[in-house]
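User: Can you predict the 3D structure for this chain?
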Amino acid sequence: MTIEIKRASVPLWQRIFPFMDWLPKVNSQTLRADLIAGITVALVAIPQSLAYAQLAGVPPYYGLYASFLPVIIGALWGSSPALSTGPVAMTSLLTAASVMTLAKFGTDQFYAYVILMALLSGLFQILLGVARLGVLINFLSYPVLRGFINAAAIIIALAQLPAMLGLKLEHSKHFMIDVLHVVEHSSHTHFPSLAFGLGSLAALFLLKKYLPKLPGVLIVVIITTTISYLVGFEADGGTVVGAIPQGLPEFSLPPFDPVASMHMLPAAFVIAIISFMEAMSSSKIIAIKKRIKWDENQELVGQGLAKIAAAFSTGMPVSGSFSRSALNLASGAQTGLASVFSAVIVLITLFLFTPALHHLPKPVLAAIIMMAVFSLIDIQVIKDAWKANIQDGIAGVVTFIATLSVAPNIQNGILTGILLSLVLFLARTMRPAVVMLGVDENGVLRSAKRYNLPKLHPQITAIRFDGQLYFANVSYFEEAVLYLVCADPDLRHILVVGDGINGLDASGVDMLRNLLDRLKKSHVGLSFSNLKDNVMEVMQRTGLEEEIGKQNFYPSVQVATVAITRQLETGEADMADTQEQGSEA
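Assistant: Here is the predicted structure, written as structure tokens:
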């Protein structure tokens, strides 16, 4: 029986306004749960947004702005009820790395390009979602993704060293050179900054380990900001968040530069893909735990609209946050209103509490970023991939090394991994296994070579082809069959056990026709058993079944062996009778 995955037909109005599917179902119980979850997530999102804005190379208030309107848009137009949209580490790093090649770090031009990147990457996601191309995300192999994430996490952590040490250094075009500059200037470390950074890192670690239910990030921010104000950290040369504009963000058209946009398109596409990968992983977990369906194409549209909302409200590229989504789910979020409530708390902060954030030390933000990305590092995944398939392991390791090598242009690292994984995939499918089969003592078909088993019959060779017969590997299959004919002078029939053949294209049909002719000239028969329905349908539509002969297709190996053996024995008897009659004449 074939299982077909069918997408439920969604009315057009529901695609345009997806929130109308769940908004009417809101009641007092879900409202209370969403309010608690929204407040809980906001307490984490506010300090994180300031930190991730620093990582993206923009003023801290860009992060707060990106935690307001984009969060609401992502919740209303997405498909996952507990997905928390907003600034995230990976997207922030990719943004800074991409824009750094076009404008000087920390300039107004740099900020304008960050906003433009939010617009372009959002448009890419909307186009993919509207075209129903969310499935393309699955073509990014997991080892490649993990290799990239591991390298990016290390880069993010090392990029916080200047802030942790209180050093003000210029960014170069090579990340490793920047790290060397930090080492060279380590003697100029600002020790109050180092104390704030290391102290915050230790406090965040201890709170997460021993008091995980408390909002550790918020507690650390409140304590360190108070200490910073009392000891005069800014007056002593320390770097703080500084003044944050109060009130709503400025809503305006994103600054559009056609020339810069053309240069930014490849990076914008990578940001669109990678940021959605994080949102997708969170949405899948939410869907499993809440036992609900989610639509990757609708989520692409929702995340794309959220990025565009950020571009129109002086924000930065956003994505679905894995950590905040997990917190949202654990806090009991029932609908997208949880994210709306979270955005409202951010709005209240913008109106009332921004002066309180003035003295927040930037080394503390660096510690928050470090703590967040440490959980992203997972070397064991690469080791497991290497054990499972050496080619997957190679792809993961090469992606890891390439990403570190080309930093800050880390988008080139993931592109390298994608291209390599595609090449390795083609290499695997071009030369799939062609296994000669034998029968063990239990009558089970196994590899004759691996288990040292005899053939089915002295004049019959059974082979199994593991893969679809398509243009890239048909010549390999043909060569393997003809090699068997040349290597075994007693061979009179080849049985292809087809349960491993998943598909057949026009090149495969043409190859089988040519192979059939060549085998006939060599007086070798060709039969198939256990073929799948889709392969048989292609043979029937193209007339190949008639050319091979319907009698040469069998439902099982056992039936095929008995029938072919009888044919061979009958043929030999007929040949003997003919020879005997000739000698009598």
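The longest strand covers residues 434-439. The longest helix spans residues 258-290.
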